[in-house]
C-alpha cells in the first residue's frame, strides 16, 4: 500500500512536487544524505533512522506515497545556500527530516527513530 519514489536531487524534487495530485494519497518526504556504493549514507543520523523508518513502512496498512529525497553529499548539504535549506517548501535544518507534504507536521533528526512519532505523523487527517 506504500508507493515508494526516489528523488536524487533538488531538481527531481521540484519536478516531482509540481506533479503531486492534491486529491491523491498523502505524500511524505524523507530527506536524507546521499549514499555510497554500499547503500550507506554519509549522515550517521540518517543511517540510524533508516531501518526504523523502513520497518515502520513495511507494517503500514495505509495508502501513502513515501518519497526518499537525496539532499546530496556532505559539502553540498552543509552549504548554507543549499536549496533544501533555503526553499520555502522545505526549510530543512537537519537531516533526516520527514515532512507531510502540504502540511505542517514534520519529524527531524532523532525524532525519525521514534515509532510513536512516526505513527502520529502517518495517521489520517481528520
TrEMBL record:
GO function terms (MF aspect): DNA binding; protein-disulfide reductase [NAD(P)H] activity; zinc ion binding
Record-annotated PARP-type domain positions: 31-108
Keywords: Cytoplasm, Disulfide bond, Metal-binding, Redox-active center, Zinc
SUPFAM superfamilies, per database record: Thioredoxin-like (SSF52833)
Cellular component GO terms, alphabetical: cytosol
Pfam families according to UniProt: TXD17-like_Trx
Subcellular location(s) of the protein: Cytoplasm
InterPro entries: Thioredoxin-like_sf, TXNDC17-like, TXNDC17_dom, Znf_PARP
Top-level taxon of the source organism: Eukaryota
Family: Belongs to the thioredoxin family.
Protein name: Thioredoxin domain-containing protein 17
Amino acid at each position: 500500500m506504500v508507493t515508494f519514489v526516489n528523488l536524487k536531487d533538488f531538481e527531481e524534487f521540484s519536478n516531482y512536487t509540481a506533479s503531486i495530485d492534491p486529491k491523491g494519497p498523502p505524500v511524505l518526504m524523507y530527506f536524507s544524505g546521499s549514499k555510497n556504493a554500499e547503500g550507506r549514507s554519509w549522515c550517521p543520523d540518517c543511517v540510524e533512522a533508516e531501518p526504523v523508518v523502513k520497518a515502520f513502512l513495511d507494517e503500514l496498512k495505509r495508502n501513502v506515497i513515501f518519497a526518499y529525497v537525496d539532499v546530496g553529499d556532505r559539502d553540498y548539504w552543509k552549504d548554507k545556500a543549499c536549496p533544501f535549506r533555503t526553499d520555502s517548501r522545505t526549510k530543512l535544518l537537519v537531516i533526516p527530516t520527514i515532512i507531510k507534504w502540504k502540511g505542517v507536521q514534520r519529524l527531524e533528526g532523532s525524532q525519525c527513530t521514534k515509532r510513536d512519532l512516526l505513527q502520529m505523523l502517518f495517521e489520517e487527517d481528520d
